[in-house]
Amino acid sequence: LVGPGGGLILGADLRKDPAILEAAYNDARGVTAEFNLNILARINRELDGDFDLDGFRHRAFYNSKLSRIEMHLESLRDQEVRIGDALFEFRAGESLQTENSYKYDLSELVDWLAVCGYLSNQTWTDARKNFAILALTVGESS
After folding, report:
1. What are phi and psi of 11, to 5 degrees?
2. Residue 11: which of 120, 126, 133 has the closest Cα?
3. In 3D, which of 49, 4, 60 has the Cα closest to residue 27?
4. What burial class does residue 127 get, using C-beta atoms within 10 Å of its C-beta: 0-12 exposed, 13-18 middle, 19+ buried?
5. Spans in the chain with pLDDT lower than 70
6. What is the pLDDT at residue 142?
7. Residue 62 and residue 18: Cα distance in Å, rounded?
8. Which of 7, 46, 73, 131 is most exposed by smallest CB count within 10 Å?
């Protein structure tokens, strides 16, 4: 969509200590848990579901092999859930994976983007290098 000679601004969450990531995605105030459980509330509202939000708990953990935070909603008990005319069974401990949030090594990301035809013109990071913003242009071959 950008096209040859076009520009793109890309934000990327960078790799960091898994303890920092897990603390952020399992925040003490429960903001992320509320956000994650909202998917069930939306299914109930928009797809005629009957999820009991109290029957699930938020879990987030870092998958180091895939370099991503995985967010899950874990069933707290055996239960049946209806979405429209479909019925789904959950066992206690079974989870729905709701999100993957990938974390990148900045130099690997720039190299990967170059292979895809994006040239990095400028990069900005926060002081701790936890997050990056990249200004990219599209080369003629992409």
Report:
1. -100, 140
2. 133
3. 60
4. exposed
5. 140-142
6. 43
7. 6
8. 46
Q: How far apart are CA 106 and CA 16, in angstroms?
A: 11
pLDDT at 52: 97
pLDDT at 85: 96
Q: What is the pTM of this model?
A: 0.81
DSSP one-letter string for the chain: ---TT-EEEEEEEBP--HHHHHHHHT-TT-HHHHHHHHHHHHHHHHS-B---GGGEEEEEEEETTTTEEEEEEEESS-EEEEETTEEEEE-TT-EEEEEEEE-B-HHHHHHHHHHTTEEEEEEEE-TTSSEEEEEEEE-TT-
Angle 102-91-28 (CA atoms, 0-180°, nearest 5)? 45
Is the Cα torsion angle 127, 128, 131, 137 positive or negative in sign?
positive
